[in-house]
Amino acid sequence: MEGKIPLIVKWSGKEYEVYISEDDTVADLKREIMYKTAVRPERQKLLNLILKGKVSDEECKIRTLKLKSNFKIMMMGSLEQDIEEINTTPANLPVVVNDFDFPDMEMPIEKQEVYLNKIAKRVKDYEIKMLNDLRPGKKLLVLDIDYTLFDHRSPAQSGAELMRPYLHEFLTSTYEYYDIVIWSATSMKWIIEKMKLLGVDKHPCYKIAFYLDSAAMITVCTRKYGVVNVKPLGVIWGKFEQFSPKNTIMIDDIRRNFIMNPRNGLRIRPFRKAHINRYKDDQLLELSNYLKTIAERYNDFSTLFHASWESKSKKWRNNKDEKDHKQEDRRDNSGGDQTES
């Protein structure tokens, strides 16, 4: 179209071409995007479209953004019908089955052959693209993205605004002890884009070994959650013999993702409402201390229960602080005695 700039909007795994003039505003752009995707402007988060200064969408002219032709905009947003479905209680819910209706000796889900066969198939068929070499002697840390490292639903002008506080400090600290893997229940292209937005993909202080996407997950049927997709660590263990339940820990804000590996999962509080909580959320600082401590103290993670990890971390840190103070006191007293003599 003459006089207009072509832009590419990436949303929900697809790309949409929109045209906008330099005299239009960001609000006009969002309306054009709505015509293509049906996502209302107030639901759109244009993550890599950075507005300069405190200007509104209605005030910000496209020319001030200096966008080149075919610039790709990463958008997050939900359709109204999807939001309505989530907020509506489903009809014909299945009858809730009492646990006591099942035999006490029922085989645990993580040991059922049908699911172990699914894992074996993922090990055989799922292709992992290595980003960086694995390091001998390191333990394995598997991290979720959405609501664990990143608030993917709050409105923002940049990925940095939605990043969980202390993310880079956390990854730098844990990289000393762990090889780091990112596993998200989404497509690989979205994982790659999010890691770029957060500045994780090429950070100088740590490296990510590889990414896993939704295709590496399996479906299981549970009493509590029904039919759900989960992240079986056996997929990684089947491909890399140096990793096992003894040296692996997975961090996620959704507990059911640990169903196949209940002893290796640590649930972190979800990071939502980034604009409010980024000034007071310190989960990654506490988690960094916990992961460092267990890496130094334990050779077998499968003996640990991570449910009360926060209280353990604070207790360990307080004990260390108390020990350090006692050592300082002893040094001071020793120095004083020597002076007097």
TrEMBL record:
Reaction(s) catalysed by this chain, per the record, are: O-phospho-L-threonyl-[protein] + H2O = L-threonyl-[protein] + phosphate; O-phospho-L-seryl-[protein] + H2O = L-seryl-[protein] + phosphate
From which organism does this entry originate?
Answer: Hypothenemus hampei
Record-annotated FCP1 homology domain positions: 134-294
Quote the biased-composition stretches of kind Basic and acidic residues, using this chain's numbering: 313-334
Keywords assigned:
Hydrolase, Magnesium, Metal-binding, Nucleus, Protein phosphatase
Q: Which cofactor does it need?
A: Mg(2+)
What name does the UniProt record give this protein? Ubiquitin-like domain-containing CTD phosphatase 1
What's a Pfam family in this record?
ubiquitin
